[in-house]
Amino acid sequence: MLPAFSTCCDELIERWKNSVGPDGSFEMDVWPEMQNLTRDVISRVAFGSSYQEGRLIFQLQDEQAERIVKALPTTVLPFSWYLPTENNKKMKQIAREVRTLVMSIIAKREKAIQNGETTKDDLLDLLLESNMREKEQKGDSDSIQGMTTDEVIEECKTFYFTGQETTSVLLTWTLIVLSMHPEWQEKARDEVLQHFGGKKPNFDSLSRLKIVTMIIYEVLRLYPPAVMLTRCTYKIIQLGNLTIPPGVLLRLPILFIHHDPEIWGPDATEFKPTRFAEGISTATNNGQLAFFPFGWGPRICIGQNYALLEAKMALSMILQHFKFELSENYQHAPYTIITLHPEYGAPVKFQTL
Ligand code: HEM
To answer: Which Pfam family is one of those matched by this entry (predicted)?
Structure first.
């Protein structure tokens, strides 16, 4: 993954350097920038050589997201997604187009694998190869033989969409918070320069960044990209002193738990990375598990190391090249729409170092 992260971050820094004015500064909304970055990265990691075709999927996804927002007022009605409205019809059409795009990428790749022409260094190759192997091993047995094409398509879509939105939100809030707290920005930059100087970050050193990790955890606590988890009971469940029957929808409000003063202390809403100085388990008042931006248990986020590494790489490279502060146009408005966005964007002023 690391070469893909590194290539995309290089391109970002180059693009930003080209925006610098005669006084060495420039201003931009970092939210779309971070979305572009994480989309580039997942396109390369997931689809490697088919990267350009993968990028097209995001254009369709943007249109889909706009339509979901437009439909939100009616979604409280049961079955509202099934009503034959113009918006719903268009969304189904987009879903079909995404499916066709993913299918064509998969078909090309399957052919390349059969001809022995693949490099096995992206997610799609790994997925298809493992699926083909499983099918061969199972042979004629009655058990399920690998994944169906539809299942492979859904896997690709899951990775593709979950792999960028959350990480771009994390990076955006990190740049906002470090603009609000220049003292932490300085500490993070000192650490990065100490480890890498002006050189490109490498895996070993990225894993050893302590201050940067504390900052990222504290941003994930205050601005968790996924604000809640949802579960449905399928049998009687005993939860503490509650007996819950089957078919109950449970919501775990990550955002509220991450801000609870009983768990985190009276400064729960303040940005204080030092609470993670000794890691996650000692960050709370009573050592209770209350930090779960990536979920917990068997369904814990499969991409958490990927996300943390990508965030550390991007942040390290930005800190190496620029100082930044919030623009006067910034309005602080965390807003929940699937993930936790800055409602009016994130305009930030940059100064080259
Ligand atoms: C800051 C970034 C990220 C955050 C905050 C995040 C958060 C989460 C959370 C809370 C869950 C659990 C959902 C549940 O239990 O209902 C989850 C699951 C998942 N995440 Fe992430 N995620 C992030 C990045 C990524 C990335 C980069 C990828 C892929 C490259 C990814 C792929 C997945 C997948 C496939 C699952 C489902 C795992 C399963 O059900 O077994 N995530 N994520």
So the answer is: p450
